[in-house]
Design brief:
Elements lengths: L2 H23 L7 H27 L4 H29 L9 H29 L1
Helix pairs in contact: 1-2, 1-4, 2-3, 2-4, 3-4
């Protein structure tokens, strides 16, 4: 996957999240809501860029297992980092209701779906090169 296509897809993910956030904000409001969304989007954009770069690098490796390990690592890292981010934002922004976490879950699903797409695209190109 080319960098330009990746950035366009990443921008689309951000737009989907912002639209979902605006719709969600019509029903649920709380203090720190905009800050929470900013932190969440920043986190997911940075993680996506990190794993795109690592995926691009490992997909060019002759060791196919290196790419598989990256996929497992990215899933585990994102899950653990997401839990830590929610816990830290819970205390920092005083999130006291579970319904306040829904924007995070929406972002998690959108960005994880996109991550699976671009990593599988990179993996397919890598697999074709080794045949």
């Amino acid at each position: 996957m080319q960098l330009k296509k990746f950035i366009l897809g990443l921008g689309l993910c951000v737009m989907i999240n912002l639209v979902a956030f605006v719709i969600y904000a019509q029903f649920v409001r709380y203090d720190g809501m905009v800050y929470f969304e900013f932190y969440v989007l920043s986190f997911f954009v940075l993680v996506s860029i990190l794993f795109y770069g690592l995926g691009k690098h490992t997909s060019q490796s002759s060791d196919l297992y290196r790419f598989n390990r990256l996929i497992v690592f990215s899933t585990a890292f994102k899950l653990i980092a997401s839990i830590l981010l929610i816990l830290s934002l819970k205390y920092h922004l005083a999130l006291d209701r579970p319904v306040q976490i829904i924007p995070f879950l929406i972002s998690y699903l959108v960005f994880t779906s996109y991550e699976v797409y671009y990593l599988s695209t990179l993996g397919q190109k890598s697999f074709k090169k080794t045949k």
